Structures
1.
Amino acid sequence: MFELDVQNGKPIYEQLMDKLKELMINEVLQEHNQLPSIRILAQELTINPNTIQKAYKQLESDGFIYTLPGKGNFVAPPKSLKNSLKEEKIRNELSRVLAEALYIGIDKHEIYRLIKEIGPLAKGGDS
Amino acid sequence: MFELDVQNGKPIYEQLMDKLKELMINEVLQEHNQLPSIRILAQELTINPNTIQKAYKQLESDGFIYTLPGKGNFVAPPKSLKNSLKEEKIRNELSRVLAEALYIGIDKHEIYRLIKEIGPLAKGGDS
DNA sequence: GTACTGTATTAGGAGATGTAATACACCCAT
DNA sequence: ATGGGTGTATTACATCTCCTAATACAGTAC
């Protein structure tokens, strides 16, 4: 499914969250799709089940997935993330990064181009 | 000068980096201004000099400040950050956060508004 | 019941973070 | 050259996070 880098400095469970979010954003994983079970994924990635659980639990509390005990973990509808605590965090992060980008001299128009480039990708295909 | 939160989960040296970058971005600290000395700042914030040093060293390697041994630390010209490794990192971070924002349903136009709101602030006044 | 799912707890090791105490080297004013 | 400021580097130690490991428990489906 994907690879993780143990040496990366960044915690494994965060790398896993990022990869999974990326798959959801690119709609490889879609609304209500089931994620790999904790034990299966732990086997495939050769890491401890607790680490997977930590990533899944965090993704759930962030609103990206929902958990049905005994059944599995599933992709949450993106719209359910609107008006959540997570939205506020993303807005703050966005402001911070935008300010930093503009400070070092990245042009507004380059950012506009980025948005147009990403925008369609988040909605439909990836071409 | 500012406050740090030891309980914040986020490392003190990172909080310090964020605060200092914020001051530079908002031009409270301007090009070639001298930063507080490591020892002075350690006294004021009641934290260890080594922690300050770590923040300063990281800011220097990121290109936000430059160090003159025996003299002090100074704010680097923002333009010197263009075409650096740091620019690449900021671009990647920006792409990631933008994709996440669009995914959860934040509208493009809200982001445009954010940019216009921040843009002038990074150039001139703060009103 | 069996075999999947997620959840929770306890224990331990490795590494990051912050503190502390020192020592060294550079710059500058006197 | 001396003194007092600056940054730099090293070593040691306590604490916390991250990750692993081994278990046990609980919900769901067949």
2.
Amino acid sequence: MATLKDVAKEAGLTVGTVSRVLNNRGYISDDAREKVNGAMKKLNYHPNEVARSLQGKSTNTIGLIVPHIRHPYFAEMISNIENQAYKKGYRILLCNAQSIEEKEREYIDICTGNRVAGIILCSGTVSVEVFDGIRVPVITMERFLDNGTAAVECDNRQGGTLAAERLISCGCRHLLHVGNISSISMPADQRTEGFRQVCEKMGVAFHEVFTEKSQYHNMKYDALIEKALQEHPETDGLFVNSDVIAAQALQVCRRMGISVPGQMKVIGFDDVNIAALTTPQLTTIHQPVREMAEIAVNLLHDAASGKIVPKRTVLPVYLVERETA
Amino acid sequence: MATLKDVAKEAGLTVGTVSRVLNNRGYISDDAREKVNGAMKKLNYHPNEVARSLQGKSTNTIGLIVPHIRHPYFAEMISNIENQAYKKGYRILLCNAQSIEEKEREYIDICTGNRVAGIILCSGTVSVEVFDGIRVPVITMERFLDNGTAAVECDNRQGGTLAAERLISCGCRHLLHVGNISSISMPADQRTEGFRQVCEKMGVAFHEVFTEKSQYHNMKYDALIEKALQEHPETDGLFVNSDVIAAQALQVCRRMGISVPGQMKVIGFDDVNIAALTTPQLTTIHQPVREMAEIAVNLLHDAASGKIVPKRTVLPVYLVERETA
DNA sequence: TTTGATATGTCAATCGTTTAACATATTTTC
DNA sequence: GAAAATATGTTAAACGATTGACATATCAAA
């Protein structure tokens, strides 16, 4: 592996001059520049980023912690974050916590150990204290941490409101809501709040069922939905917290002989690819994932540069009318 | 940020001893071990992995290059690779090439610049020469490189064979195959070969349409499929190269008033989550993604340790019978 | 008592790059 | 012809951990 020294020798210059060319510092002649470029090409030289990082104070790496990759919402989120990070010259250290606290905590250590420029934490489950000792910016997505640097969310309450309004205006009178994991408090809980408020105001009954962490992991919601529909056979409107759940609800309805949207209206959340690939296609709440991702990376960048950044950013959602409601 | 020196001072020992504790080298007393652990905890010390990497010859990072993240097949692949990598103590540097040669090439440079232990390249599109100068192991998935270290594939030909046999045994006599990007030669082209061979042997006509690189990127196949079905209205069996395409084909059929599986049988490829969430559910060819991922990481690990590894590993596929064929 | 195992200290080099201080040219400009 | 700008060289410290050579000390067993 060629080093700066090798390049310098090849170019007949000193490391100082070569470094000046590389970093565009001080005075450099066109002649020197050419010699250096030629030598670099000839030796197939690539600066050792590890050494660079050690010399400087931190790396250009973002630690991206997600609970899952297979879940289309997070796949979408990761993709958008990578895009923006790449544009800004950051790399992604991918941390798949799998909703396992232990693994999440370990990955946080790995991030700090690798001197990341900052951490983007998507829907983390780890407790607050873990972040007390962290000196790098921590940007949370769909999760608020008192000791975090900044949080990015969509307007979850508004999403719940839109869903309830839509279902009720479709004529539904017996609603069922598949909410979040009950054990962890999340901004996404606000979906339920918005939903509840509308229902109460309009005098429409609704039941709520909670998911479990393990389901978040294996993405199997069939049994839960089937059980809930059996317990509440009068249900004619369903609002669930993700399109993945909604897609499975459609399968359950089909198995149970419940026609959608005839007997049952369904509204999902996220508006990921899958929403347009089910039959009937899913009506859902659109999360502005791209914008959230861009903002998160920008916040991280600004915070890492020592700027003061807004503690909380909330982006609007909107209803996408398709076929299920 | 606490350093080894700080820990040594806090523990009342020297860096040598502390290093011995950390790396379990030489003689260490329980007393010293305790002192060091206490000091580490007190100072919230995390070894600087950057410095460690610089000192050693390479990092414990795998450069994972994928053409897409949003595509469920790659999301699945990434997830499985991360899992196995984590078990083996590797980190993932996520490189989303977006099927852009320029970006893929740049990411390869970034990987070498960051002194990754090895590269796992999924369905890369970059030309062979790029890898000539690379000294780290390069494991390719679903792509064969003469100058690569090892390649992992599924039995694509077998997949094509199974699909053709199934469609024909379902009574289809006018087949259509949505194949790969025509401009790049890939192992996945073998699906077409296997498919063709069976069709020819059985005397069943079939047409083939090719996808474009941009479609791989934006995952929009509707127009292509619709056009193909209009050009070949006699089609009664469809074999497409991914479940994403198949799911869209179902939507197109619905729009065109073609009943599936009544008038049209459909077989996808990959067997990702989405396959069980469409209506009707997709019959598809299962790729052993988990096994492929594990093998890839193991190959990388072995190759990085200087072992000789098999140049090509092909894993079996099988047909998953659901509702579309 | 001697030997050897155990335990720690000291010191310095190394990994590859950056950067600053300082010296020394050459060329340009007034 | 002097001053200023341009260009490069020299040297060394720094980033943080690893590692090896070597010294020294304690304690056990032979």
3.
Amino acid sequence: MDRRQRKTREAIFRSFTELLSHKEFHQITVGEIIEGADVGRATCYAHFETKDFLLKEFCEELFCHIFDTENHEGHGHRHIFDCSGCDSVFLHLFQHLQKNDNNILALLSSQNNELFLRYFRSNLESLVKSHLHLFNSQKSARIPERFWENHIISTFVETLKWWIDNGMVESPEVITDYFLAVVR
Amino acid sequence: MDRRQRKTREAIFRSFTELLSHKEFHQITVGEIIEGADVGRATCYAHFETKDFLLKEFCEELFCHIFDTENHEGHGHRHIFDCSGCDSVFLHLFQHLQKNDNNILALLSSQNNELFLRYFRSNLESLVKSHLHLFNSQKSARIPERFWENHIISTFVETLKWWIDNGMVESPEVITDYFLAVVR
DNA sequence: TTTGTTACGGAACATATTGTTCGATAATAT
DNA sequence: ATATTATCGAACAATATGTTCCGTAACAAA
């Protein structure tokens, strides 16, 4: 990719991130984005067909980073599934989120738009589905598997939101404990 | 209230409901609302300061009806809390929702906007808080009460969404059973 | 270095939407 | 019958989205 293109794209994403930490998506105008990014209006629309596509690509880059199934930055080539078979998959997720790369927590907090949670949730789905066996218990026998899956995913998302909205005073270990306490 | 005012207000809400079953809030324009309601633009803005206030009052009327703490229509003066002390509070809620008054289910479904769920959730909060004792168990001792409250509310909302999105094939009794199975 | 290609900037533009204003008219209340 | 109030319709300002065009600058390949 052309260096100019790359710089423009990054500048737009950077400006977008900054704006998102102060106001929500629908209150942000394209004018503000390009002003913060210091790029022309036509340039912005050459990169992103519409404002909604900008959001879409932004989320894809962001969550692909967290749910990356290849390797995990900072841990060399440590895979997020390394500890599969034990409960620490979700602990790793909470720990990673606590680092707050790209100010992702502001995007996931309740006061911000639900759009991000929708993207986050869809990424979380495959993760939960592949680890559903960890949660089997006597009560999962009384309900359909699809309902059970949905419950685990929802509970994780809601736990995360609760954690963020309450200032993240608990450690990742404690919040994982809360999460596991209620889902089984 | 003036008969003209009442008719206008109802016409606007009726048109709004119709539009909401096809598209989400942010895609609906005031022009479409007043066209469907067959009222003038100035009239609409005489009733509702902005589009957001329209939504707000619409939700308040809608959810006030369901969470009414005075009496419950259709059951004479049967109070929603009549059966407090047993689990049927939530069964009643599921049963009432199944009747789908004012097409409320379309508004709460996943494809529709999250705005309604936010209003619904805030109404649900007081209900859950006053019945929290029904859910006390050994696991609720391991976590903060605020987290526990939030979990019950979230699980109810997510159960409802799952029910709607999967076609509501289960009876209110069964879905209540699923709900109770996962929260305790 | 030269040449052809591609991205960029800036401004103007069309289009759509929100919310306001105003005067004429019709429904309502007393 | 009269005064009040809601409504209509149309025009209006303000703002946002997305498009178009052209001159300029950065890039890649010879």
4.
Amino acid sequence: MYTAPRGTQDILPIEQKYWHYVISKAEDIAKRYGFARIDTPLFEETALFHRSVGEVTDIVEKETYDFKDKGGGYLTLRPEGTAPVARAYIEHGLFNEPKPLKLYYIAPAFRYDRPQKGRFRQHYQFGGEILGDAHPLADGETISMLWQLYQELALKNIVFIINSIGCAQCRPFYLKALKDYYTKNIDGMCPDCKCRFEKNILRLLDCKEEKCASVAQKAPRSTDYLCLECQTHHNTLKAYLADLKISFRENHRLVRGLDYYNRTVFEAVPQDSSGQQSSIGGGGRYDNLVEQLGGPPTPALGFGTGLERIILNLKEQRVAIFEISHIDVYIAIMGSDGRQQGLLLATNLRQQGYRVLLGSGEKSLKAQMKQADKSGAKWALIIGEEEAQQKTVILKALQNQQEQQNLEQKALGNNPTKYLDKPS
RNA sequence: GUGGGUGUGGCCUAGCGGUUAGGGCGUCAGGUUGUGGCCCUGAAGGUCGUGGGUUCAAGUCCCAUCACCCACCCCA
């Protein structure tokens, strides 16, 4: 028997309401914040990710899906959304558009990871990028938008963790201080950390090993080494967040795993979940990425948030999502004339915009009525031989199970969010 | 890559080493001629993840393997 590849999942009809709920809200918010949609290919040249995400990051070292196509080109299924957007920005000369340019996407990302709760080899991200804006206002607006999304989805207890990791000017001083500090302490630390000490010293800070964590706790803080500009940037952002009444706290050990970040980095974390590792969103500033990839110097920042993790939290927090029936009318038919008339009527109603389920020609009327009830249709139309000959139909209003359940739920007042599964 | 747990029909699940592996949900068909939701009856559907082993006897014990889940790691 074939099964979905490890770490991937089928999103069955029963689950679709969650996805529709989150995606439609994300698009709605993106538009309200002035973001335009961009879609990039599922795969890119392998080198793009190596140059942007970083050669020694875990993502690039061992988690990408790489393949060679028949022309001999090296390609990689995108492990994240920012690099492709930056590439498209440069390739199509979008830097000629009025700045800042705000782009969003909803797309799958691929990482060869060991699957776990909320972690998949294919997962969907809602992401956004603001290109061509160096002011902390953009940082504030980005975090505010994500915050607003979580609020409107009715997710509770979300906290933002923020940090500043400095810029090209001040980071070298910080890295040197870190190196000095860790040179003295490296002996007792875990093998992973010893390796990171050589390759990417910043990552030592977020090691979860107990002994390493206590060392990291006392390590020099990046915020103490910021240049004046970075300091001002950081403080201004904090003031904006406080103004917006967004729950946030600083954590000097927050270091994100992608090399292109500078200055602001942040993560969104559900507070009450037992572990603190399960961030549902994150992002940061990447002022040098566009230039690194061959574009003009372009300060920028972005965010990504995982749809599976949002849905997981919606379920854990028991956010009620109502799905009003997707069927308006069920047409039950009998006899060859009835079938003929039923098909015509169904087509006619569908042309007028109704959602119509036409009964099976081989089921009894009783069976069709049962199906009508389960379908959630509000109305049943019955066409038998008699009706077909007299060109009439029997119209019957249905008070079906689903409707009753919804009424009960509403009576209980258990509706922190209302959601109608209607296109417009 | 490292540790731990689980694996019984589409879903949930009972099953102290021993008769034809039970139940619930769902599906399908009926409960008098053309009508739903409740109720009743019946049916279909399982090589008990897979492969070895122990035993007179294995869903039940042992080993291996695979898959899934959880944690580490990493991140969305």
